[in-house]
Amino acid sequence: MIDFRYHIVSLISVFLALAVGIALGAGPLKETIGDTLTGQVEQLRAEKEDLRAQLDEAGTDEAAAEAVVSAAGQRMLAGALTDRRVALVLLDEVPEEQVTAIGERLGQAGASVSATVTLTDAWTDPGLRTYRQALAGTLVSYLETAPPADAGTEAELADALVQGLVGADGAAPDTVSENAATLLELLSSGDNPLLSVAGDVTAPADAVVVVAAPPAQDPEPSPSADAGATTQEAELAVLDAAQRLSAGAVLADGRRTPESLTSAVLGDADRAERVTTVSRTEDVTGQVVVPLALAARIAGENGHYGYGDDLEPLPPAVQLPPVDRTPTTPDAPAADGDAGDAGAEGEG
After folding, report:
1. Which residues of 203-242 are buried (b: 16+ CB within 10 A; e: fewer)?
2. What is the pTM of this model?
3. How confident is the model over 320-338, as a mean pLDDT?
4. % pLDDT > 70, the chain
5. In the prediction, which pLDDT does 336 show?
């Protein structure tokens, strides 16, 4: 058994070790330890200052590069989308400065933003599936072009959204049709609106830019295992409808990641041939490319733009014909052009 003497010896040993450490630290090793610590602190301080200088230099270089791209972009964009009307569809909350920047670049290309709408959580909320199905059944009756019977609720809602944005009154092409106005009203009203509309939509769009929201910094757990996949399928349905029902559509996405919509588009060979994407549109470079990519898509050139595998830096240069908004009557066919035959041109 361990007796009292054992404890006494142990305590004495501890105190002796402590005394020796204090004696050495205050005596022979004092200068050595102090010099070592001082040297390490000075080295760390120097490294910190060096890294800060490198960061400042990199920030200056990046700002200079963005300034050059921004200035060059104004020249590149001039006349690319003359007199085109473009609707912005935000798939979720997108930073206001990014939306404003994309709108400004479209303006430099000669286009105007005819509408800005944002999809709400109700668009994909699993708990509102029945509500969306019932609403889609009502919306179908107002569609100028009905989707296939087996298209599904997501496709029906996407078609209703896009037709609400591009539907023009044949007798007054600068005015949205009655059915289009009704579609947007039904989608944005009620206890569970599926979208919010910024201001009034008074003119139909020729083309559509679908803007993906930046990824969440701290994403909340999905309510179900396939909730994320369901949300992405609904967003892809909007992209498909935008391209099919307008003169042309572009996905303005963020940085390409395995979970991004751009990766989902490129992962589907058929969709990749129909839908144009632009990555990194939170940066000046991507924002400048959006109008150029939209002009190319209206002209029938499809592509995927950005930096990385399977992406090109710039779309091909195109020259679009003037917009023809000649009024039509029930007995007269629509005039040729991207506004009169948007669907046909969008399929190019």
Report:
1. bbbbbbbbbbbeeeeeeeeeeeeeeeebbbebbbbbbbbb
2. 0.76
3. 69
4. 76
5. 45
Confidence category of residue 330, pLDDT binned at 50, 70, 90:
low
Closest to 278 measured CA to CA, from 309, 260, 254, 296: 254
> Strand (E) positions, 33-190?
85-90, 112-119, 168-169, 172-176
Cβ contacts of 242 within 8 Å, gap of 6 or more: 89, 158, 162, 208, 210, 249
Contact indicator for 324, 312 with CB cutoff of 8 Å = no
Q: Is 164 exposed, middle or buried (0-12, 13-18, 19+ CB in 10 A)?
A: buried
Return the DSSP state at 195. E
pLDDT score recorded for residue 290: 97
Count the neighbouring beta carbons within 10 Å of the beta carbon of residue 59: 10
- 79 phi-psi bin (left φ>0, alpha ψ -120 to 50, beta other): left
